[in-house]
UniProtKB/TrEMBL annotation, chains A, B:
Residues 12-175 form the Metallo-beta-lactamase domain. It comes from Banduia mediterranea. It holds the Pfam family Lactamase_B. The lineage of its organism: Bacteria, Pseudomonadati, Pseudomonadota, Gammaproteobacteria, Nevskiales. InterPro entries: Metallo-B-lactamas, Mito_Persulfide_Diox, POD-like_MBL-fold, RibonucZ/Hydroxyglut_hydro. SMART domains: Lactamase_B. It comes from the Bacteria. Keywords: Metal-binding. This is MBL fold metallo-hydrolase.
Amino acid sequence: MIFRQFFDSESSTYTYLLASAVGREALIIDPVKERLAHYLQAIEDLDLKLVKAIDTHTHADHVTALGDLRESLGCVTVMGEYTKAECVSMHVTEGEIVDVDGLRLQALYTPGHTNESFSFVLKPQSPEAVFTGDVLLIRGTGRTDFQGGSADRSWDSIVNKLFVLPDETTLYPAHDYKGWTASSIGEEKRHNPRLAGKTRDEYVRIMENLNLPNPKMMDVAVPANLACGQE
Amino acid sequence: MIFRQFFDSESSTYTYLLASAVGREALIIDPVKERLAHYLQAIEDLDLKLVKAIDTHTHADHVTALGDLRESLGCVTVMGEYTKAECVSMHVTEGEIVDVDGLRLQALYTPGHTNESFSFVLKPQSPEAVFTGDVLLIRGTGRTDFQGGSADRSWDSIVNKLFVLPDETTLYPAHDYKGWTASSIGEEKRHNPRLAGKTRDEYVRIMENLNLPNPKMMDVAVPANLACGQE
């Protein structure tokens, strides 16, 4: 398998490019519009054919490259079934497999940060990694105070859907703000300060008291992302 | 093997933590002083014992955490034999193996960015990855205009020592400024704009005409790093 992680320093977003080393078909997860040229370069340099572009959820902090990638390369655009982004061509449901040339990702509905967030498990029969979007971060969790977010549902998604994956599953989030590039399910179970040793009620209280300002790009990013970054 | 890549956004430095999953002994490559707390947290969270801390070369753009890590955790500090940093306790020579609990890194003398730079090949008998410091970057190379740098020697190091590694060897540099986190030897042979299809003379000309300003931290970082970050 070919695997690349990219970092957008403006929004602290991680984007993932995965491809089959044999057939060279690729998919990308959570691409950022401003980084389009880099993805196109990597795809060309690595001699790949991008067939799918996934957004884990409607981002509020950056504009997606989904629409631009579809326009440039003709890939299928993928999001969860509850997204309001009408420009998306494939809407995945709980448990559905996204297959790219034998590379399999299983969609898990993991609301909480937004009400339409999905996570994606790589090689679900023996999980190797999970791309969690913003629901579970490294030593943190995604805020739950807008876009249909819910601390209760975040807890359920994390505890009942993500923490049941094997401890050694690598965690690849959509963001990190401290320079950490990956974690694992076991590590977050043991060391995530919002979750380890906490009850659901304690978690909900933590999330309700974050008092974060709105993301500076929110008013631009959400409408733009509902149009796959092309409005 | 346990593997973690960290990013220091101030200096765009990548730091690598490697450990044996069995014995839990670890080494770190190119740690940044300001990120010390993060490394200590990761080492503790992952239940590791840091036994060695390596600097690929005397950095001019950030202050090393080598001395602080030695003070905090009692690890051995490692650099190449030609470093002027007297605080270093283990000076490696060409071909020498740095062994941590069976995890083997081979030192390669790769001058060019500085006259004392080493690269380190992970699992040298069947190379998996190479940590190149600043001599070879992703789609770039380290500047050669100070600290005993030499475009000629940079070319020799890259072409005769790094490009002879298998194409599939993952390249982990000490820096990236565009959000790319890794590459491979084959990819750089084919797509590095300073090297692919270029002659030695063309490369030397490119490097001699970069006209870069000095790193803003140079006057602080170099003397500080000669004292392992503790002056």
